[in-house]
Design a protein that fits this description.
Blueprint: E1 13-16, H1 26-53, H2 60-89, E2 93-95, H3 96-129, H4 134-137, H5 140-166, E3 175-176, H6 183-187, H7 195-227, H8 233-266, H9 272-282, H10 285-297, H11 299-314
Parallel strand pairs: 1-3
Antiparallel strand pairs: 1-2
């Protein structure tokens, strides 16, 4: 079974190394990481506050947008503070259960964000293709069911990974060459067959995301067909403008995620520190830019933000 000199154990702690190969640059890397994280938290927090405080924004589109902002905060806050602790204080220790918890929330946030982007695409489809039935289709009850479905699917998809990791015996090392815990990175430390982990970690979450991508593509195909059937150019321009910010956020989420995934799986010639750096930027850049894109492209959000700022100055 195992050699006599091989000790099986479940480590009480793992050691995260940050970005191996760039240890001498950790302090310098921490500066943009910290600034991007602060921007992401403040920007998404402000977006949630605006949506909650302005009654004119209590529409399905903005409800989904505030869900996206909250998920972005969850994704970045689950990873970046620990990375900064490693960069600044060399505090790489993380408990076994804390590591599993971090991994769980990272993957849940990823699958949830994909589902929220699909819900936003469906919202745009209903608003443009069947505008007269918008309020009757996207009722508060429907929004609640969609929210439960998004988070239920995310948690249900990722929850088995906890047991897939806890069943493994760890007898090699407790050092993780990364700045945060992720499923396959932890599984590779085990001294057992991890085929089930590899296949589940690859197929189940990716299948969920690929289904979302396909449905988003179908939604926008139908949206474009409806837009180009509109009689006036102004109407077409207005309809396309309402979708512009959402398309930007979709591209910002899916392109880096698939690029990071493919380079991690198939980019064997790419240096390991490049993989880790890309993985860190993926959990930072989209959460930082999403509120900026929506703030710049959505007039209602800009007007509501300006109104709140003017009230705060008067008070």
């Amino acid at each position: 079974m195992f050699g006599a000199n091989l000790t099986i154990f479940h480590p009480t702690v793992f050691i995260l190394l940050g970005i191996p190969g760039l240890e001498h640059y950790h302090t310098w890397l921490s500066i943009p990481f910290c600034l991007m994280y602060i921007t992401a938290v403040l920007g998404n927090g402000a977006l949630i506050l605006v949506v909650l405080s302005e009654r004119t924004l209590h529409a399905p589109m903005y409800v989904f947008l505030s869900m996206l902002a909250a998920t972005d905060i969850l994704l970045s806050s689950t990873t970046v503070p620990k990375a900064l602790a490693i960069f600044w204080f060399h505090a790489g220790e993380i408990g076994f259960d804390a590591c599993i918890t971090q991994m769980f929330f990272i993957h849940v946030a990823f699958v949830a964000e994909s589902g929220i982007l699909l819900a936003m695409a469906l919202d745009r489809y209903v608003a443009i293709c069947t505008p007269l039935r918008y309020t009757s289709i996207l009722t508060p009850m429907t929004i609640g069911k969609m929210t439960l479905a998004i988070w239920g699917r995310s948690i249900g998809t990722i929850f088995p990974i906890i047991f897939l990791l806890k069943r493994l015996p760890y007898c090699r090392t407790n050092i993780i060459p990364h700045s945060y815990c992720e499923h396959i990175g932890v599984a590779r430390l085990a001294c057992a067959d991890i085929t089930v982990n590899i296949w589940y970690g690859f197929s189940v979450p990716m299948a969920s995301v690929l289904v979302d991508v396909a449905l988003i593509g179908v939604s926008y195909t139908l949206i474009l067909q409806a837009v180009f059937r509109l009689p006036s150019q102004d109407a077409r321009h207005k309809a396309l403008n309402t979708c512009g910010s959402h398309v930007g956020v979709i591209l910002l989420f899916f392109i880096p995620s698939f690029f990071t995934f493919l380079t991690h799986r198939f980019g064997k010639n790419i240096p390991h520190h490049v993989h880790i750096l890309l993985a860190n930027l993926y959990v930072l850049v989209p959460p930082m830019l999403n509120p900026i894109i929506y703030g710049a492209k959505t007039k209602q959000i800009r007007d509501s933000m300006a109104h709140m700022l003017s009230l705060s100055r008067k008070s």
